[in-house]
Amino acid sequence: MNIKDVARVAGFSIATVSRAFRAPEKVNVHTRAQIERVAKQLGYIANSSAQVLRTRRSRVLGVVLPTLLNPVFAECLDGIARAAHASGYSIVPVTTDYQVTSEERTVQTFIAANVDGVLLVVSNPADSLALRLLKSKQIPYVLAYNLHQDHPCVTVDSEAAVADVVGQLADCGHRHIAMVSGHLAQSDRAQQRYRGYLKAMRQLGLQHRDLIEVPFMATSVAQISVQLARSDRPTALFCSNDLLAIRSVRAANDSGLRVPDDLSVVGFDGIELGMDLTPRLTTIQQPNREMGRVCVRLLADSLARGLLPGPEHTQILDYSLRVGESATITDAHMPTPSRRTK
Amino acid sequence: MNIKDVARVAGFSIATVSRAFRAPEKVNVHTRAQIERVAKQLGYIANSSAQVLRTRRSRVLGVVLPTLLNPVFAECLDGIARAAHASGYSIVPVTTDYQVTSEERTVQTFIAANVDGVLLVVSNPADSLALRLLKSKQIPYVLAYNLHQDHPCVTVDSEAAVADVVGQLADCGHRHIAMVSGHLAQSDRAQQRYRGYLKAMRQLGLQHRDLIEVPFMATSVAQISVQLARSDRPTALFCSNDLLAIRSVRAANDSGLRVPDDLSVVGFDGIELGMDLTPRLTTIQQPNREMGRVCVRLLADSLARGLLPGPEHTQILDYSLRVGESATITDAHMPTPSRRTK
DNA sequence: CTGTTAGCGCTTTCAA
DNA sequence: TTGAAAGCGCTAACAG
């Protein structure tokens, strides 16, 4: 079942059949109707491999994400999917599980498949082979969540956001504020957020604490509990992401600490689920869907104009503090984000 | 940059270059080394559109899921991704948002892209155009979570699972057990689970309650709260999935009810997150990753043998009761699943 | 072990 | 408005 069959049955050449679908206005109305009828009757579906091979355009955007087990990326992907669909693009999401080699392999596959553009969340944009490859092949790409001067990025000012929220915790009387993070080397976001924590503590004249690094998902609750059992335990925990914040709350409960009375817990990401928990998660709200949308828009615009997005297209979006019940922060008068580009 | 360039630079014919990658043993060792060197140096990446067009095989499996915002599908996808990778397949996950038309559109795209097989979670296998299309085009496919006699399915016996857990609630003294579900028409799982609920209530001689149907995610907490405010409120809630169970717990808190003391809440799915919540979610644990794995294995086996999976390949996997803290169920002596196929 | 060549299904000039 | 034909990049006979 291919274009030839349709042509034969409809009584026209394959060129006309092709045109009937790709440039209907160039075909006689009756001819078109006839061809459409036959195509439908035969259940004809154009072979996209052939189309892509011939036209060198796929109308596909590749999407590289660390994982979909963290809802923050699922929400972002939702935004990507909707925006892509609205712009007439398909997407191919692939998860890397924070493996750099997987990022590279995926980008290779994307190039082989002639994707029109790529949207990525990488571990470390600074020395990413995947990005180098994309650049060398002149394929439009945009980073989400990452931030680096050499690449087009769509993200929030994480460092400022963390500094802000740590400041708020201090305002509420907290002096012993610790930070919980996944493996720092695995993500530049974690690093940015850690920098924000250190900066804020320094500015506040508070003694920062050793980072509570919990690389292995499965055991993180236990690992956090250990820290909470110490005599010099912190009174507030800033967590590098909401999933860790959820686990921290659990760890507090396991340790006989009440949240937020005995321990304040603040997350980062603003996953929707956090609002349905008890206590409702206090967190830095990123515009996750919007970030996806903006990335797609950037890519689609570039594609339409035939140019590559560069660092000059970087967009820093607004974040906000979502005040829940997991921390003794009472009001949402968050300082204005320090940087903002539109 | 294509095979021709590599051939020219390496000083061999394109046929030899092709063979060097696809059938290395048929090429002289030195020739191969030379070709590999040149290919690497030029950054050659074979054009998969051309390969697929020529060979009619893509080593790609299409994956149709309702949403990735529900972690149950993200976990399943994780299993799919790992199994596919292990079998040398790529996957292309697409979400339908429970839209039947989107299922059909997606399957068409998959067919156009020459996927080797398709793995789906559909709304209603009984009259699915998407499945009909797949069948008519002779494309191997397997359903996950769905259950229907005409199709190859990998799932658990939801009906029995629900009946079991409702029975346990009754054993613990509950007489007023209500069920919370998303829009029933949107998923045959919800329907199976509802049947299980009704069956169990009937067998227990208990009066079943009107289904608490909360079609719109955003407002579900409020909708559930309304039901909990009634004077004849239930003492136990069986929720069609874990996300609803989480929201039910929140609704209970909002209503001044303590879980599980005043209200028992049981979920379905066994998402990992549930174990990190307070109270830990009591839920029916499905082998989500395993289901993904089994689906891929089924597909890969069929592909290897050149035959289509049929209803006879259906596998009903084991579920279990995960006893958390959200319900007054004290022990895990769950009856053996009523049906089981291996 | 290597090269020649036909052709996968489609789009797109170009000519009629 | 339609058709003939070249060719996208690759694979797989087949011949040597």
Automatic annotation (TrEMBL), chains A, B:
<keyword id="KW-0805">Transcription regulation</keyword>
<dbReference type="Pfam" id="PF00356">
    <property type="entry name" value="LacI"/>
</dbReference>
<feature type="domain" description="HTH lacI-type">
    <location>
        <begin position="1"/>
        <end position="55"/>
    </location>
</feature>
<keyword id="KW-0238">DNA-binding</keyword>
<dbReference type="Pfam" id="PF13377">
    <property type="entry name" value="Peripla_BP_3"/>
</dbReference>
<keyword id="KW-0804">Transcription</keyword>
<protein>
    <submittedName>
        <fullName>LacI family transcriptional regulator</fullName>
    </submittedName>
</protein>
<dbReference type="InterPro" id="IPR010982">
    <property type="entry name" value="Lambda_DNA-bd_dom_sf"/>
</dbReference>
<dbReference type="InterPro" id="IPR028082">
    <property type="entry name" value="Peripla_BP_I"/>
</dbReference>
<dbReference type="InterPro" id="IPR000843">
    <property type="entry name" value="HTH_LacI"/>
</dbReference>
<dbReference type="InterPro" id="IPR046335">
    <property type="entry name" value="LacI/GalR-like_sensor"/>
</dbReference>
<dbReference type="GO" id="GO:0000976">
    <property type="term" value="F:transcription cis-regulatory region binding"/>
</dbReference>
<dbReference type="GO" id="GO:0003700">
    <property type="term" value="F:DNA-binding transcription factor activity"/>
</dbReference>
